[in-house]
Glycosyltransferase family 8 protein (Vibrio algicola), 313 residues
Amino acid sequence: MKECITVTYACDDNYSRHLAVSIASLIDNYSMSKRLDIFVFDAGISKENRGKIQKLERNNIGIKFVQIDVNMFDGYPLTIEHISLATYFRLKLPSLLPSHKKVVYFDVDIIINDDISKMWDVSLEGKSIAAVIEPEVSLNNKEHLRCIGVDGDFFYFNAGVLILDLDRLRRLNFEGKVIDYLGKYSSLLVYQDQDILNGMLFNDVKYLSPFYNYMPMYRNILSKKRRYQINLIPYTELEIKKLKKTACVYHFCGRRKAWMQSCTSSGFHLYKKYQHKTEWRDADYTDLEQIKGLVKANYIYRRFILRLMNFLS
């Protein structure tokens, strides 16, 4: 079988529009050097939305939906409100794609801004995965790393963009060991599957340049590096500044997503560009998640005022 590039996503129907935009950006920047297979692990995407997304297919580029029963993750912790059980699908990739040796995994809040072939050709140097350092947790929450089993002076990595050596993970019985890990650490997890991956693979990861996963918090790291005059992360200030406009992958992790009017993160303008290449080209930027967040904030504020009034009365 001729070599092809394999990219995977996991998504439910709520994020299908944003999945389409991410895939459109991936395809638009692809050099067509090899066949590109895109697997979407489907946690309930409607037939209509699957059809809209598959209209992005091109010659030598296929999009396949693999329906997954989320009940297989019953009992897995959900600690982050805007993240669903679909996030755990990446832990099952070795068995979900049994004939594949290697894959790239993307979260749906990703915009690709360069040829994915560059990422595919990165050597893992014998490691199970390749990922980019998540600076905030690495620098500000060392105690959390110890709590989830990270032994030694290792960085915490972001799991929204990964290159995975599936052959190696199968040899290591990674999926079987996830169950054992959860039995010991489940109550201590804060960042869900990302904690699991870090706790299990902290010494089996190749760190990538932020070129492959530029996150909003990298802007804050620059000021911290200057303020404390220490090398907090192994990237230079010049490298990080340059990537604000030239990254291969922009990752809008956190609550302010690229489809929200309040987003000012590097690369946010690209979302609208690629949205116009999808069946959602006329959708506006008023997002359900944003409205839900405002409603919740208002509810919390009102409860606080009521409690304060009761206390003072």
